[in-house]
Specification:
This protein is of the alpha+beta class and 154 residues long. The protein has helices spanning 14-21, 119-143, and strands at residues 2-10, 35-38, 50-55, 58-68, 73-78, 87-98, 103-113.
């Protein structure tokens, strides 16, 4: 089992950051240029909801496995085969308050299996091309006011 991990500090209270990323149907904060919808009219914070993201002619589907407002986190997996040569990919994003100065610590990680000779490649890919990029977009989104677009469903 491999693990990719990335974290950042944001100059915003944890509750404000969590309010932006909490809904599973809202992915614009990650800088994903495409359409995100929740299938079958489920709520964007309902465990079992399936998020379909369409971007650049690609479609990925992810299922919400767990969400907790107390810990400000959610966990998800790919529905069907992931768009990468990995198996058993499960990711979690969590927002933790930095009490001393009312900022937030945001961490995102994934565990997965892959061919041993590909492990370092995919650990680095998910860390740098995924979590680092998306959390950088979150920083910008929060700095721009953190406005959430209207909910879409299918």
């Amino acid at each position: 089992m491999a693990k990719s991990y990335y974290s950042i500090i944001l100059d915003h209270p944890a509750d404000d950051v969590w309010a932006v990323i909490r809904p599973f149907d809202h992915y614009a904060w990650a800088g994903v240029d495409g359409e995100t919808i929740i299938e079958h009219d489920k709520a964007g914070d309902q465990v079992g909801a399936v998020r379909r993201v369409t971007y650049g002619g690609n479609i990925i589907r992810q299922a919400l496995l767990a969400r907790t407002d107390i810990d400000r986190s959610y966990t998800y997996e790919f529905c069907g085969a992931p768009p990468f040569p990995v198996q058993d990919y499960v990711a979690t994003i969590r927002v933790v308050p930095v009490v001393a100065d009312n900022r937030s610590f945001v961490e995102w990680w994934a565990t997965f299996d892959c061919a041993a000779e590909e492990r370092d490649k995919w650990v680095k890919h998910f860390e740098q091309q995924g979590f680092a990029k998306w959390l950088g977009a979150l920083r910008q989104f929060m700095s721009d006011g953190g406005v959430r677009p209207q909910r879409k469903s299918a």
